Amino acid sequence: MQSETVKMNVSVWRGNRRDGGYLSYKVPMEDNQTILDVVTWIQHNEDPTLSYRFACRVGMCGSCAMMVNGIPRWTCRTHVKKVLKDNAIKVAPLRNLPVIKDLATDMDRFFDNWNKAGGVHHSDQTRNDEIELIDPNKPARKIVDAGIECINCAVCFAACDTVSGNDQYLGPAALNRAWTLVNDEKDADRPGILDLVSGNGGCHNCHSQGSCSEYCPNELDPMVAIAGLKRETMRHLISQGKTDA
């Protein structure tokens, strides 16, 4: 007699943030199964209208980030056996972002904050100028290298309670990006970046709770970057004589 397939209870958010709710599905348990595999199985076998994002499936793009049992994760690298509790899993869209439909969120706020933090390279050279060589062993360059592996998955943004309570807060990823540029010798507007991140919603709004660093799938440390920005913005203000005596 063939043994019966073991199934798990999976609750998936359906609809938008305001009018949606969880629907339950019975999903077959398989070896080496990821949360993304589970979501894909539900779409293929139970409801083809289920909306979600994914691309590479191997932890390089960050597109498949979702809340799994209340924690932001890359679902392609989160194995079911790691998070299964009482034979149940709950999957929801990333926190702190508007929901377009089901598990797909609107990333505009996340990327708008990236720009508000001055998170684009500012060049004072043209394509005709000789490429400037940077010593990779310089301390400032090593600081940059520690933060450049961000792939914009927004896991840190979803994990941040300050983002939840402050609509103006730029968020860990944007501030981490600003920190890499402030320490980049090739960036031509480092003082301008410090002005942007020291204002309303900037680095000084961070409460240093550390969720961003705890949950970053690439093991970056945005909290250290934000602490660095706090120091540099104060030095910048003092150099301009903008602090009270």
Low-confidence stretches: none
Q: Any idea how many domains?
A: 2
**Mean pLDDT across all amino acids:** 93
Give a count of the beta strands, DSSP E runs of length 2 or more.
7
Please estimate the helix content: 25-40%
The fraction of residues in strands falls at 5-15%
For the largest beta-sheet, the strand count, sense and barrel status come to:
5 strands, mixed
CATH architecture of the largest domain: Orthogonal Bundle
Large-scale geometry: elongated
Order of helices and strands: EEHEEHEEEHHHHHHHH
- Structural class, by secondary structure, is alpha+beta
Strand arrangement across the biggest beta sheet: 2-1-5-3-4
Kindly provide the radius of gyration, computed on alpha-carbon positions and rounded to a whole number of angstroms. 21 Å
Q: Number of DSSP helices?
A: 10
CATH class of the largest domain, named Mainly Alpha
CATH homologous superfamily heading of the largest domain: Alpha-helical ferredoxin
Terminal residue distance:
84 Å
- CATH topology name of the largest domain, in short, is Fumarate Reductase Iron-sulfur Protein, Chain B, domain 2
Task: Please give a structural write-up.
This protein is of the alpha+beta class and 245 residues long. The protein has two domains: 7-105, Roll (Ubiquitin-like (UB roll)); 108-126 and 134-239, Fumarate Reductase Iron-sulfur Protein, Chain B, domain 2. 34% of the residues lie in helices and 14% in strands. The chain is built from ten helices and seven strands. The chain has helices at residues 35-45, 80-83, 108-116, 139-145, 155-159, 161-165, 172-182, 190-197, 211-215, 222-239; strands at residues 7-14, 21-28, 65-68, 71-74, 88-92, 99-101, 104-105. The strands form two sheets. A five-stranded mixed sheet has the order 2-1-5-3-4. Helix 3 (108-116) packs parallel to helix 7 (172-182), helix 7 (172-182) crosses helix 10 (222-239) and helix 8 (190-197) packs across helix 10. The chain is elongated, with a radius of gyration of 21 Å. It starts with 6 loop residues before the first strand and ends in a 6-residue tail after the last helix. The model has no long low-confidence stretch (mean pLDDT 93).
